[in-house]
Task: structure prediction
Amino acid sequence: MSKLSNIINFIKDVISPKYCYSCKKEWHFLCPQCLQTIKKHQPYCYICKDKNAGFEVHEKCKKNVFFDKIIVYCHYRDNTIKKLIKDAKFYGRQEILDNFWLGLSNLFFENEIVLNKNNYIIIATPMHFLRKIKRWYNHSEVLAESISKKTSILYYHNMTKKIKYTKQQSKLSKNDREINLKDSFQINKKYLELIKWKNIIIVDDVISTGSTINHLAKLLKDNWANKVIWLVIASD
Ligand SMILES: [Zn+2]
Ligand SMILES: [Zn+2]
Result:
């Protein structure tokens, strides 16, 4: 972490000190004891919601679905988790993410048989640059970088781009979502060779809507990515 961000974090701690969102103890956003008690997500298929080993999408569920698995750490309906993620995302409390990258890294290896790390690439869900300016940073990039360091799988910043400033998907109808997303992502040309036959791990805090992730997954598959795997903190 740079000197500047250390100073910023120090100022933030003075203005609004850290306390555990669950038990209110000081110094942590989620103290180690409370982190232990967070209910973990059971491996399931994201499409039909039935249990499935390795968080794989069943073959029978893959009709027009372009991603292979969505590995989820915990439940978004947990109020502590919901509040932590919101504050990390909208209020710039970046250190909140420190509670999750280790768990996510371990969870990845528990649910994916990795024979050769060189066949994998980590990216973050791309954010339009205007949204990034609005929020100061892309929390998914911060998370992806930490997971890359822990897993020794290479992280590529800016491999994919969000080129259309889309309205928030959750506020739209299903039809409007499709139109809203059309051609909204792009792969940076210099990486087109690199992604061929690779397994792409996309890191994010939550899975927002199925159509967003499917659009990005389709783009990667159209450009010869082998597997597309999401690795996220929480989902319902
Ligand atoms: Zn606590
Ligand atoms: Zn299924």
Notes: The beta strands are 69-75, 120-124, 160-162, 185-187, 199-206, 227-235. The chain is about 35% helix and 15% strand. The first strand starts at residue 69 and ends at 75. The pocket of zinc ion (ligand 2) is lined by residues 45, 47-48, 50, 58, 61 (CB under 6 Å).
